[in-house]
């Protein structure tokens, strides 16, 4: 499922909104979440999960192709931890994965 | 390492939808709920979700393996299970390091 599919499904379920309105809402949700993480905030969505920013220490790396040593700066990476409800639903769900 | 910038909750996301679209608070809350519910139902079915610009949520199948209780050293079988992983998009990763 990609974002258009998600917009499609939500539009079908919420009859009084246009597809375009649902699109704006879904974009707003993910923009807001991206903004929070960029500002170093955590995000907690009950029943779904939480997102946080983790800091990766700088390290001496290597270009795997050339073998040249490169210095990898400290960087921030998003980290998602699945919430209890969703973890259980995914694990018990019918999907083959 | 923790950041000291606080935690965003669903309430703030609802607030931003409310400000942007001008539906009632109740409607805004319901639709945000509906978006996450739809995502949960999809993942429950084992399907992945790709949100361009944000990242992919992928259900992965873990085979059973032998683990060990680190306290007692006792071996135990960790049963087969499905787990959800999030792979952030390049765009999100770049946004964090601007």
Short description, anyone?
The complex is a heterodimer of chains A (about 100) and B (about 100). Chain A is α+β, with helices and mostly antiparallel strands and about 100 residues long.
Write a structural description.
The complex is a heterodimer of chains A (97) and B (98). Chain A is of the alpha+beta class and 97 residues long. Chain A folds into 2 domains: 1-41; 42-85, Irregular (HU Protein, Chain A), CATH 4.10.520.10. In chain A, 41% of the residues lie in helices and 29% in strands. Chain A has 3 helices and 5 strands, in the order ααβββββα. In chain A, helix 1 crosses helix 2 (19-38). Chain B is of the alpha+beta class and 98 residues long. Chain B is 40% helix and 31% strand. Chain B has 3 helices and 6 strands. In chain B, the strands form 2 sheets. Chain B has a 3-stranded antiparallel sheet with strand order 2-3-6. In chain B, strand 4 (65-68) and strand 5 (75-78) form a beta hairpin. Classes of the chains: A alpha+beta (97), B alpha+beta (98). At the A-B interface, helix 1, helix 2, strand 1, strand 2 and strand 5 of A face strand 1, helix 1, helix 2, strand 2 and strand 3 of B. Strand 1 of chain A pairs parallel with strand 1 of chain B, so a sheet runs across the interface.
């Amino acid at each position: 499922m990609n974002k258009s599919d998600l917009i499609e499904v939500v539009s079908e379920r919420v009859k009084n909104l246009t597809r375009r309105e649902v699109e704006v809402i879904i974009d707003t949700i993910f923009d807001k979440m991206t903004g929070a993480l960029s500002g170093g905030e955590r995000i907690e969505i009950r029943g779904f999960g939480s997102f946080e920013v983790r800091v990766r220490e700088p390290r001496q790396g290597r270009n795997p192709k050339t073998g040249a040593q490169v210095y990898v700066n400290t960087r921030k990476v998003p980290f998602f931890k699945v919430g209890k409800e969703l973890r259980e639903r995914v694990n018990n769900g019918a999907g083959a994965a | 390492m923790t950041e000291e910038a606080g935690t965003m909750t669903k309430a703030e996301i609802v607030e931003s939808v409310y400000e942007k679209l001008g539906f009632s608070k109740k409607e805004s809350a319901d639709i945000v709920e509906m978006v996450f519910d739809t995502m949960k139902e999809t993942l429950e079915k084992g399907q992945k979700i790709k949100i361009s610009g944000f990242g992919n949520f992928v259900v992965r199948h873990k085979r059973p393996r032998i683990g060990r209780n680190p306290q007692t050293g006792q071996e135990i079988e960790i049963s087969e299970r499905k787990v959800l992983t999030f792979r952030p998009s390049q765009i999100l990763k770049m946004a964090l390091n601007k």
